[in-house]
Amino acid sequence: MQRNVQAFINDVTADKVTQDSLTGTYAKLATKVKPWLAKLVAALNADQLAQVTLTAKHEPAISFRLETSVINLPLANLTEIGKVTAAEDTLPINVYMIAESDALPSGLRIDELGSVADVLADQANAEKLLTDWLTAQTDRLDQITAAEA
Q1: Which of 2, 36, 65, 98 is the most exposed place for a label (fewest CB within 10 A)?
Q2: How far apart are CA 59 and CA 102, in angstroms?
Q3: Angle (deg, nearest 10), helices 33-45 and 123-148
Q4: CB 44 within 8 Å of CB 119
Q5: What pLDDT digit, counting tens, does each position of 51-102 carry?
Q6: SS (H, E, C) 45-60
């Protein structure tokens, strides 16, 4: 999947992004990886940009998102995306894993899961990478929370 940068910005601005969410128990978030990824894959198979959020009640608050984008910035940072890309370029769409919490040092953690083509071609590997990443993020938050207690 590829998009012209200006068309990508226009689509995001016009809310032409498939949005979905699911909720899980913080201690058992890894059990939600398969349905979380499935919601993303459904949008990707329809050639749609996507944002799928996984939430759990936790103190401090944290949310996890899978987003499609042309670069490793959240869709909420659309202005910055426009500043660091050339509008006329056509770029591959990648899937990014985002953790957001005030407890994280920068408030945000973003990592690339892979290109849309890679995620669709090897969903088992994407599920493993996503599970490992999610576990690392919750472990990190637990360490931060324990250190502050």
Answers
A1: 2
A2: 10
A3: 130
A4: yes
A5: 999 998 888 888 999 999 999 999 999 999 989 999 999 999 999 999 999 8
A6: HCCCEEEEEEECCCCC
